[in-house]
Hints:
The structure holds 4 protein chains of 4 kinds.
Chain A: H1 4-22, H2 27-54, E1 63-70, E2 75-80, H3 85-103, H4 111-129, H5 133-142, H6 144-154, H7 159-185, H8 195-200, H9 211-226, H10 235-242, H11 245-268, H12 272-275, H13 278-301, H14 305-324, H15 329-360, H16 371-374, H17 376-390, H18 396-411, H19 413-437, H20 444-448, H21 455-498
Antiparallel strand pairs in A: 1-2
Helix pairs in contact in A: 1-2, 1-4, 2-3, 3-4, 3-11, 3-15, 3-21, 4-5, 4-6, 4-11, 5-7, 6-7, 7-9, 7-10, 9-11, 10-11, 10-14, 11-14, 11-15, 13-14, 13-19, 14-15, 14-18, 14-19, 15-17, 15-18, 15-21, 17-19, 18-19, 18-21
Chain C: H1 15-39, H2 44-68, E1 72-74, E2 78-80, H3 82-100, H4 105-108, H5 113-126, H6 133-151, H7 158-189, H8 194-203, H9 207-227, H10 234-242, H11 245-270, H12 278-299, H13 303-321, H14 329-357, H15 373-376, H16 379-393, H17 399-413, H18 417-443, H19 459-492
Helix pairs in contact in C: 1-2, 1-5, 2-3, 2-5, 3-5, 3-11, 3-14, 3-19, 5-6, 6-7, 6-11, 7-8, 7-9, 7-10, 9-11, 10-11, 10-13, 11-14, 12-13, 12-18, 13-14, 13-17, 13-18, 14-16, 14-17, 14-19, 16-18, 16-19, 17-19
Chain D: H1 6-29, H2 33-57, H3 62-92
Helix pairs in contact in D: 1-2, 2-3
Amino acid sequence: MDPINTAMLIFWPAIFAFLLFTFRKNKKAAQWANMVFHLPWFWFLYQSCLLWRSSTADGMFPIVFNSDFFPLLKSNFALGLDGLNLPLIGLNVFLSFCLSLYALGKEKLSSSYLALFALLNAASVGSLMAADAFVFYIFWEAMLIPMFFLIGIWGSKNRVYAALKFFAFTMLGSLAMLAAILYLWVQPDIQSMGWHSIAQLGLLGDGLWSPRFWVFCGFLIAFLVKIPAWPLHVWLPDAHTEAPTGASVILAGVLLKLGVYGIARWCLALFPSIAVLDVVSFTMKVLALAGIILGSYGALRQTDIKRTIAYSSVAHLGFMLLGLFSFQLAGFQGAMFQNIAHGLSTGALFLIFGIIYDRTHTRELSDYGGLGIVNPRLSMLFVLSVMASIGLPGLPGFIGEFLILNGTFVLSPWFAFFACFGILLGAVYMLRIVRGMIYGETSSVLKSHPIKLSFSEWGSIIPMIIAMIVLGFWGQGLIAVTARASATIIYNLQGEILR
Amino acid sequence: MIFEGLRWILLAPLLGAVLNGVILQNKSAKISGLVATLASLVAFGFSVVACSQLSGLNSAPEQNFLIDPLFTWMSSGHVYVPFNLELTSITSVMLLVITGIGSLIHIYSISYLSEEESPWRFFSYLNLFLAAMLVLVLASNLAVVFLGWEGVGLCSYLLIGYWYKKPENTAAGMKAFITNRVGDIGFLIALFVAFSFFQTGDISRLAERVNDYAFLSSGVPTWAWYTFAGSLLWAATAKSAQIPLYIWLPDAMAGPTPVSALIHAATMVTSGIFLICRVWPLFAMSPVIVDAAFWIGMSTAWLAALIAVSQTDVKKVLAYSTVSQLGFMFVALGAGSPAAAFFHVITHACFKALLFLAAGSVIHGMHHKQEMSLMGGLKDKMKITHVCFLIGTLAIIGFPLTAGFFSKDMILAKVFAAQGVFGYILLLGAALLTAAYMFRAYTLCFWGGARSEYAQKAHESDPLMYMPLVVLAFLSLFIGWLELPEVFGHFTKITDWVHSSWYGVGVGEQAHLSHLAEWLLMLITSVLSLTVAYYSFKIYQRNPEFKILPEPLHKWSTNKFYVDEAFELLLIKPSMKAGRFINRISDETTFNGLANGSFRFTRLSGRLLALFHTGSVQTYAWHFVFWSSLIVGAIFLWTL
Amino acid sequence: MPIDFFDSSIFYLGPDDWKNLSPFILLFAGIAVLVVAASMRAKDLVLRTLSFSFLSGAAVLFFASLLSQGRFFLGSSMELGPMERIVAGGICLIAALSSLYVRGPDYARHSEWGALLLICVLGMCLLPTARNWVAFFVYLEVLSIPAYLLSALYSNREKSLEASMKYLMMGAFVSCFFLLGISLFFAVSGSFKFEAISVAMTAAAGPQQFLCFTAVALVFSSLAFKVSLFPFHFWAADVYQGAPAPIASFLAGATKLSVFSSIVLAFSECGLWDIPGVSLYVKLLGVLSVVLGAVMALTQSRLRRMLAYSGVVNAGFVALVLPNGLSVLPSVIGFLLVYALSVLICFAVHEIALLRLGRSMDDDLEINSFVELKSKLSPFYLVLLGFALLSLAGIPPLPGFFTKYVLLSVLAKNSAFLLLAVALIGTFLGLGFYLRSLVPMALYPAIDSKKTNSETSSSGASLTAIAATVFSLLVLFGFTYLQGLISSAELMAR
Amino acid sequence: MISLPVGELEFHVFVSIALFAIGAYGFLCKRSGLIALMCLELMLNGVNLFLMTFSKHHSSPDGASLFLFIVLVAAAEAAIALSIFVILSRRFGSVVLDDYRRLKG
């Protein structure tokens, strides 16, 4: 259970990315190798879970792995593991395994696709575990390059525009974060860029327009672009529609979650005194609410199915933002839970639709109809994941949304009230999709392209559905995991409120 | 007192649903129907055992309920939701009603769906519905009740849209789900208030809050009580189809008839009232909301009755009569006596299920034709269905000694006691209208000549269908004896059960009527309703197109007072259009425009600058001199 | 009056003087050998090996002397500190790598390119060591005159001649302004030595202040021309496009490195930064070249012209940082070294692409014509070009990010937040044109045109590309050593 | 040693700046390349004059040393420029600077 396992969580995908490059010639072997490489990754995850459970360090962000590789830049390669990032890493590994099952036997997915995918995994797990601002920034940006090529090369028609837009928006955000890190880096009394030394950094001053506020904003903008919060969300629908199935599942399942995790770890936990300012929390809640309502209205307007699901994740992430800024333990843990729940439900939606899209190659809702007749089992799974994403009780979506709204109600009842309309609108646009796709007479497109799922495709969806059902009732297990970490964060936040 | 048996009541239908839905999936209605009915009968068996266990346990009022703690569903910060099942006396009655009538309907639908191509889907949804309803009834925590609440909404969506080939069925299903969701927002708000202000979701502890003085004085803001009660009422209006949100129930008739019988008559629609009965001590804390319930109930009763009078489709008539009867129950709640409302829930469940199933067997006989204008003269072709339908009609109009008589009179008595003569007269009017349209439907269906070849060829359904009819007819005759008014001796089973399920929290009782007043009321109501029934029976035998309502009112009522169109026009269309407009403005023009615009702007300025590069050395040299002197001059002026 | 300019001690070289001057002596020897080789019309293989060996030898000697020798003074005209040694070593390295792929028929008739290259390198290495303006001017001319000739190497092609003509005329014109500036210094202080000038500068007051400012402005604008900052960058695009690829890549990288480091050393030595208006002037040029250079680069359709404007943008970044005294030097050197190596990779892969597509040597490629490359070039080179372009754009895991980060941290340290914002906007726009040139080769589907095997093998160019990547990674890890060294250098510095 | 009267310093500085300006004007406006080269020489001589005046004024020989280097460099540049112009005129027939505009944009 030594800490090297946690570091291997990051380096193992990077290693097998390069190994995959050696499988240039035959695609089949690469796909099978990719699937097999996931098993040691699970083992490392298991070891890290044991390490986490056994570690009694009660501090905010226990460091599990530490080595100084770049003394010049006042940072060392520190990795931390606690209740907040462990579930997300688990989700990342799980989704990537499902996608590796999905990739078996796909003609289009070459070995370089799988290698880039593995690099993306390495970077996302890295930024989840990074306990040093500089290391976090490096992994955060390193995620962009593989994602850019994944969308750019394997996407559909105007993928170049979507990839460039994705890269430009995220880069804009992370440049703001770079400015914040630079400012922290040149502070005279900062010894290292480690998370803890930044937390103790006293001199930045408090109050609204103090330097600490600007550093907070720098970090916040990068995460708002990534989430995406309402005004900066324009890149998401394009990125999702153009990305290949695997990329859009990982984009929805992991990359968006990093925004929420980032805010929890690097904004709320690091600068509680700023987050608690009523100007900041009010604007954030307004943005979240705008994201919910306008995201849902956006989803209502789309005729393209993937765009609707993309807009729906804008709405869901608006909920999580609301939960984070509710400054209540229920709201915070709700947001962390919804992180996983949304990853699973939207991931399942994209995967199922991706499987259908591989055969019909059209995303227009009007082309579809009568899937229930053609493939009743798949449509049943689709309805199940739609219900999960609407937040039907008995599925994980509800627990997250319920806790978030409960938390928000305590301090700002009106926001909770209007957010409920998001749930209503969610039902409207999702059921519109279900009615368009599953019910009614079988459309010509579905008649001409029979939807017969291969064994590996079933294998990729079933685990997700089972995970959703189990999480729907056994949610308390996951909530307990995030309990300790979020309790300390909320304790600080509420301490700041009283001051 | 801990009792492990409760979970099996819930697991049996769940198992049945999974078995049918995922594993078996076989085409024959017999096998999948058998599995489903077995599951529901097992549930019925277990609930009978549980009820006997409960009645045997006679401890202090606070403890006389059975608990079956399962697991903690979620607990974080101030939100603690244990997934425990709880059996109080009120839930035991409801349990028996659900599982009993549910099993009868399962048996009925085995033959009703004999020629469907995927009956397994229907039976698994039906079992899933039973499970969700049982969760709703048995849950001890309000959040778990919400789980059942939405689960039931989901199953009604799936069942209404069962014949999904026709687009209007799925549209009706979607309409039902979304209208229920509007109500669910109310329920959620109530939950938030409960968790943040009353610090608990458990119904038992919520009830205790009412009389624990320390809590009351600890400064819970009054708006918290009002929002709690108000949002619960809002949720109940959606689920129990009251004035603003009843539009989904008539359209829900698109589903198969057993569905309408089970869900839209007996169990789901009454869950709103059942919930309010369980949380009555808290509800009564805000009298304004109670009055609101009274007037909502009254107006719904009247509106639905007026519409039902002019409907031509037999299921639509029964649907609007359900809405009107639910209005009666809300009136009972508004008059401050949940016992009367609960009694009417039980009696209504029996005779409305009977009426729906009878109508179902009529439709089945008439090869899925629901128009009453095509029926007529079926009394000699479908003897047993005719008798059962007659018993049901008599029960609903309150023929003396039938179930309806006792429960409706109890409501009228309570209204007379609470609201005085004016309220009584209004409700009596609605009761008379009920008698009118019920007997209209009865005579149009069974009396007069057969008006179409379907009617000629109609035949009696097979025993599997009319057996449940007979049982329900028996029930709707004798279930009324559970609660006798003072006059016939003191046998008030229902009120004791309702009061005992409030964990010992007493609520002020209304004034008792004198014996003379009760006799008088009973006499007036029964005499008047019988005369109206007789007249409508006689008129409709001779002239099927007779219009009870004067002309302008009749046209309005046939078009359901344009409520659907009003909703569409005032609420749904503008919000959709506004939403699409806002989204187009905010997403397409501003932000996307901004992103693409800035890209094009830099491209353009780049091309503009390229013009400076003429390529000749001298222009370059000229630039060198010009720019250096310009900047030097500017800085000189600047630093001067 | 004795001429104290050349005091007599210069002619007697003590034992450690030899060690310090050995790299320069090696360069002189190289020049002599190459001139002889040129006169004998040697084949370009011989020329290539000779020039590569001399240059790499000099580079090794420079870096070796970095460890052993301390600070070395040669009279009042030359001072060889650790910083100057690193700059000189870097320049020799870049020259050695770019001399690797000078091949093809056109060079055969002009075998003097080896000698010219070495003279140019000698000039560049000496420039940072100059401690008085006369020496500075001489080294500047020794640097630029061979450059004019080198860019005219394809004498039978019009583009190369036109490029060198433009470069020459502009260079000469600008050196006149440079001379005017120096003579103004001389007028004010009475001597060319940096210390004397710094004394005079601090003593200047009132109207003399403006005189000093014009002198500095003239000198800086002529050096800005050499480094292609915004208002004076017009020549850059044409010369990059016209000159032969190895020469253009060498000039792009090495001149910027040597001129910028000498600006930092000379200007802080003469104390010119604290003249009012000078730092404003430099920053203004920096801002202009970052923003307008990036905007220009966005519209370019040819790879080499786009690289020219990206050179303008990177020069702008360094200009933003310049006016903060000597402490800025290590980050500037690191940044420019990585920039030079990345540009080297780009030009090398561009060269390979030319050979594979069968186009003539001096032709320059449209960015979207890289599409057919996908089928003809092994993806290894595309990955290298991607590595170079993304490193220029400053994407984290690549070396370009770290050096740019250290550069920007200087801005943050002096809390010049406006400039930091401009730099970040520049990086963002830079992202635009670097990615846009990556797009055709990576994202468009491969058009399978037939594979043409050109007569000259492209092993040289591929060697350069690989070596350049390795060295840019080395810089990344050498950085920590560089940083350690700097603190010691500063201690010993004046 | 006779030092120039102060009045004469301004005179010499004026003459040298005038020379420089004329050379610059000639370089910028004249069409032919050769004339541009001549103007370059003119500008360099302007600077030389400026240098010599101040070298005399400060009575230090440094100015003269730079003068020598300037002459050296001027000669080198002239040689190279002329050779390039010879090749250009032989190959493309014209010495006019504006004819060489192929590299632009």
